[in-house]
Amino acid sequence: MNRRLEERPVVTDSRVPRFTAAERWIHRTTAALMGICVATAACLYLPALAELVGRRALVVTVHQWTGLLLPVPVLAGLASRAFRADVGRLNRWGPHDRLWLRAARRRAPGPRPAAKFNAGQKLYAAWIAGATLVMLATGLMMWFTHLTPLMWRTSATFVHDWLALTIGIVLAGHIGMALGDPEARRGMRTGSVSREWAENEHPLWRP
Fold first, then answer.
1. pLDDT tens readout for residues 104-150
2. Global pTM?
3. What is the H or E stretch that residue 17 is in?
4. d(C-alpha 72, C-alpha 191), whole Å
5. What is the distance between the alpha carbons of residues 127 and 136, in angstroms, rounded to a whole number?
6. Chain centroid to CA 77
7. Which of 62, 70, 57 is nearest to 39 (CA)?
8. Rounded to whole angstroms, how far apart are CA atoms 179 and 45?
9. What is the DSSP code string of 18-55?
C-alpha cells in the first residue's frame, strides 16, 4: 500500500491553524454589516418588505451609516500581521490558480491545486472589495446630493441599484458554497481545520 495512504488515518484528527481571532472578527463584522446593508436595501426597494417594515426614513439612515462603516473592519484589520499576510495571498496569483479555474469551469473530477486560498476565493475577494468601493462612492453621491451634478447622481443611482442586486446574488452563492463545506465553516468559526481537509482542498498550502 502507498505510504502516504497508510499515514493518512494517523493525521485525520489533527488540526492546523487557518485564521487568527482578529481575522475571524473581521470576517464576522464585515458579514454583519453587509447583511444589514442587503436587508435594508431589500426593505427600500421591494414594496412588500417596505410595507411590512415601514419607517422608511429610519431604514434609509441605517442603510447609509452601515454602508459607510462597511470598509472599517478591513481597514482596522490591517493592523494585524496575519490579516495583511492573507490579503497578500489573496492578491497573489500563480499557474496553479489557472489550473483550478479550468477544472472548476469544466467541473472536472479530481484534485484542484490551491494554496491557502483557491482561485475562486481570490476572485470573490477581489470582486467584493471592488464592488464595496463602487457602492460606497455611488452611495455618497446619492447621499450628499449637493456635491455632484444631477447627471452624476442619476448615473450613480443606476449603478448602485444594479450592483446591489448583483452583490445579493453573489453573496447568496458565497453562502451556498460555505453551507456545502462544513470544515471551511469550522475553520472560520474556530480558527483551525483538519489536516486531512487542508491536504485535500488546499494541497499547496503549508501552514
1. 888 777 678 999 999 999 999 999 999 999 999 999 999 888 888 88
2. 0.84
3. strand 15-17
4. 22
5. 14
6. 15
7. 62
8. 27
9. ---HHHHHHHHHHHHHHHHHHHHHHHHH-HHHHHHH--
How many residues in total does the chain contain? Answer: 207
- Partners of 192 in the β-ladder: 17
The string over 112-129, giving b where at least 16 C-beta atoms fall within 10 Å of a residue's C-beta and e elsewhere, is bbbbbbbbbbbebbeebe
| Cell numbers found for residue 195 | 489536516
C-beta separation of 125 from 150 below 8 A: no
Is the CA virtual torsion 152, 153, 157, 158 positive or negative?
negative
Q: What is the DSSP string of 73-100?
A: HHHHHTT-HHHHHHHHHHT---HHHHHH
